[in-house]
Amino acid sequence: MSIHGDYAARIVHDQRSHDLQAEARRDGLARQALAAVRRGAARKTGGATARSRARTA
User: Fold this and answer.
1) 30, 37 in Cβ contact below 8 A?
2) pLDDT tens figures, 36-57
3) Which H/E stretch holds residue 44?
4) Where is this region: Disordered (predicted)?
């Protein structure tokens, strides 16, 4: 491959790598947000049942 071809291939590879990293980062953030929402919902329901148990005891 010529020098220009190598350079062009490198640019395409770098851009693709950058896109994949950005996509992975977005996926990771979305997964973290979902996990946080689930934890928050579980904590709220857990707290409510503990309070109601304390009231009835």
Assistant:
1) no
2) 988 887 766 655 555 556 666 5
3) helix 3-56
4) 37-57
- The mean pLDDT value for 14-25 works out to 94
Tokens 């973290």 correspond to 32
Structural domain spans, the chain = 20-57
- Return the residue matching tokens 């640019």: 11
C-alpha distance from residue 21 to each of 15, 25, 30, 50 (Å): 10, 6, 14, 43
Task: Output b/e per residue, 16-30; b: 16+ Cβ within 10 A.
Answer: eeeeeeeeeeeeeee
3-state secondary structure of 21: helix
Long-range contacts of 29-38 (CB under 8 A, 24+ apart): none
